[in-house]
Amino acid sequence: MHEYLKERLLSAGLFCTVIVVFFIVHRNSKSEKQQEWILRAYLLVLTILGFLYVPSSGADVSRLVYAGNEYAAIPFGTFIRRAFTTSATPLAQLYFRLVQSLHIQGAMSGITAFLSFMLYFSSVKLVAKNYKFSNKCVAYAVLFSMCGGLYFAVVAGIRFILATLILVRGLLSIWFGEKQYLPAILSIVVACLIHTGMIPLVVFWLASLCLSRGWKRRLWLYALLAIVCVFAIGIISRYISVAFDKYEGYSGSGALKFGVYRYVLALFHFAIYVYFMFYLRRTRKIGILPKGSGVYLVLLTCFELFLIRDFIMFARYLCLYPFLLLPHLMSYVNTSELKGLRQYETNFLFICVVCLITNYLSDMSGLKFFVLN
């Protein structure tokens, strides 16, 4: 009845051990150099686990491995011509082909884990450096993301989370000090060419620019926003149509109960994310955020409320919150340091444990790194 139950329990235990050990070491580190080495070691371990990950037949990564093998069998010139003329996400197809051309077991999950967490840790360090948050604050923020299911989303989902991290890294570089606009714009374009689900997020970014800049700059931004919306409307409509087709497939296959169960847990996580947003508003710490990022969070939340009737898309876009909320999460723990109170840290750890349990009850129950004979 419970396929690979021992493997899943042992793998979950291994994963929890990894994140707890790195959390303790990271929390107690003092210097920026120590933090750098800890995050590098963390990246290495997560990458190794990614190569060891054994996906179920129904996981997205299994389908993408099969697709990558098919792409690798096509002559490269023919493949490039087809990918860039017939697909809205040619870079995703190119990525699948390149990874599967290596003929390495577990390469799809392992390489994606390396790229994804390299981007994630880079984002974490950027935010921490900009606000001068301590290593302890960073450790809690990373723990929150890990407990929230980030790792399983990376190794099992591949495409959406990789595109999301590429997009978010570009946005954070604009909002939090780097001001490298060309690389940021390129990262946004690349993200859209990996997954069309990034297009609404780009529209939110343009809208946040319009609402954050002076009125003299708004005219061309509004025009750019209108052009992007017109260009994207066809792709977005197809994306939403496919999502609802999947929903109907779930309801017809008897999987609806499991979907509703995951949907309830997604609503719970959404409430936690909104709590951190309101915490900053209540304590008047919202001013630490660049205005554009605050507007973006509001737009994303309104979008999620609009999608709340469709648990597939609603749950999918939830993965943005742990990245966009990085300053909120670190500020929450920083409050504990400034006031000399452990209440905030205790509350934060309790939230992390609850998130970990609820994620294991849904997605992370499929996590396994080996199969016993």
Note the topology.
Layout: H1 5-28, H2 32-52, H3 60-72, H4 76-86, H5 90-100, H6 107-131, H7 135-147, H8 150-157, H9 159-175, H10 181-194, H11 199-212, H12 215-253, H13 256-282, H14 291-307, H15 311-317, H16 321-324, H17 326-339, H18 343-361
Helix pairs in contact: 1-2, 1-7, 2-6, 3-5, 4-5, 6-7, 6-8, 6-9, 7-17, 7-18, 8-9, 9-10, 11-12, 11-14, 13-15, 13-17, 17-18
Features of the shown structure:
globular; 18 helices; 373 residues; single chain; mainly alpha
Kindly describe this structure.
- By secondary structure, the protein is mostly helical.
- It has one domain.
- 80% of the residues lie in helices and 0% in strands.
- The chain contains 18 helices and no strands.
- The radius of gyration is 21 Å and the shape is globular.
- The two termini are 17 Å apart.
Q: Classify the beta-strand content into a percent band.
A: under 5%
Largest sheet: none
Number of helices: 18
Give the mean pLDDT. Answer: 79
For this structure, the quaternary state is single chain
Q: Order of SSEs, N→C?
A: HHHHHHHHHHHHHHHHHH
Total domain count? 1
The total count of strands amounts to 0
Low-confidence stretches: 247-258
What general form does the structure show? globular
